[in-house]
Amino acid sequence: MNEYKDFSFLIKSILEPEDILLDEPMKNHTSFKVGGPCDILVTPKKCDEIINIIKLCKEHELPYYIIGNGSNLLVKDGGIRGVVIKTSKLNNIEITGERVVAESGAVLCSVSNKAAKAGLTGLEFSSGIPGSIGGAVAMNAGAYDGEISKVIESAVVLNKDGEILEFSKEELELGYRKSGILKYGYIVLKVTFRLHMGDKEKIMNRISELASKRKEKQPLEYPSAGSTFKRPEGYFAGRLIEESNLKGVSVGGAQVSEKHAGFVINKGEATAKDILDLIQVVQKTVKENFGVELQPEVRIIGEE
């Protein structure tokens, strides 16, 4: 029996029953399609609900984790103890003039496509990124010479003391796959992007062009978390992996993609351990061959 069952009754004072799941397999909530069960998974629909759930967790000294769309997340096979707060139902997107305001659980590619339909340019680079807005800001997500730091105006966040703060782009300390969000443990609630009016046909053509490139070069037909490793300074991770003759190398159901060496994929029934072991094989081989230490870009949480 889930030892957090009693705590789940307390959460029912905050959320509807359908927004509370016990012993929920995390493979259902990550793009890798792996991961053991979490004790409680909740899907709040309002920012106030997140704040109240976190307050309740702190009062009862229970660990909690914030996740978005699970597209850059690897949960270990033992699962997660405590409460997982999934923001996917906080997905409102509003457009006023050249500003786009999106809640943290909105999917980045959905925000990009909605902006494009409004004739706004600037987010085309993100049209194929399946991550949530909150995760995208925390990681300063980017692709095809674009990144969040180039289009974000401000973000509303929750700090560790339960205070709601608003930060400008400069105050967010955005860098390559890093931010003040990660550094200080903030939780993104809402983000404002400042875009520009453009030619709608050109915007849609650019989105189609990038979609074709992704389909041609990336293993989109298999579960993965996108690029597995951060780009090491002065190098490209995928090229180092390919030149180490690791394309197609497998551990269990995990494989270094034969289409793009920078992707570790779930070729079929992989476990989180398979993926982690393969990541270690890649790191060890690249270090031996080039003296470069590859760092995972994917967020790894949970128990063995």
Question: Topology, pairings included?
Answer:
Layout: H1 5-11, E1 20-25, E2 37-42, H2 47-59, E3 64-67, E4 73-75, E5 80-86, E6 93-96, E7 99-103, H3 108-117, E8 120-121, H4 133-139, E9 142-143, E10 146-147, E11 152-158, E12 164-168, H5 180-184, E13 187-194, E14 196-197, H6 200-217, H7 237-243, E15 250-251, E16 254-256, E17 264-266, H8 272-290, E18 299-301
Parallel strand pairs: 2-5, 3-5, 4-18
Antiparallel strand pairs: 1-2, 6-7, 7-13, 8-14, 9-10, 11-12, 11-13, 15-16, 16-17
Q: What would you note in describing this structure?
A:
- The model has no long low-confidence stretch (mean pLDDT 94).
- The chain is an alpha+beta fold.
- It has a five-stranded antiparallel sheet, covered by helices on one side. A four-stranded mixed sheet has the order 1-2-5-3, covered by helices on one side.
- Helices cover 28% and strands 24% of the residues.
- The two termini are 20 Å apart.
- It has helices spanning 5-11, 47-59, 108-117, 133-139, 180-184, 200-217, 237-243, 272-290, and strands at residues 20-25, 37-42, 64-67, 73-75, 80-86, 93-96, 99-103, 120-121, 142-143, 146-147, 152-158, 164-168, 187-194, 196-197, 250-251, 254-256, 264-266, 299-301.
- The chain is globular.
- The chain has three domains: 5-86, Uridine Diphospho-n-acetylenolpyruvylglucosamine Reductase, domain 2 (2-Layer Sandwich); 93-216, Uridine Diphospho-n-acetylenolpyruvylglucosamine Reductase, domain 3 (2-Layer Sandwich), CATH 3.30.465; 219-301, Uridine Diphospho-n-acetylenolpyruvylglucosamine Reductase, domain 1, CATH 3.90.78.10.
- A hairpin with a 2-residue loop joins strand 6 (93-96) and strand 7.
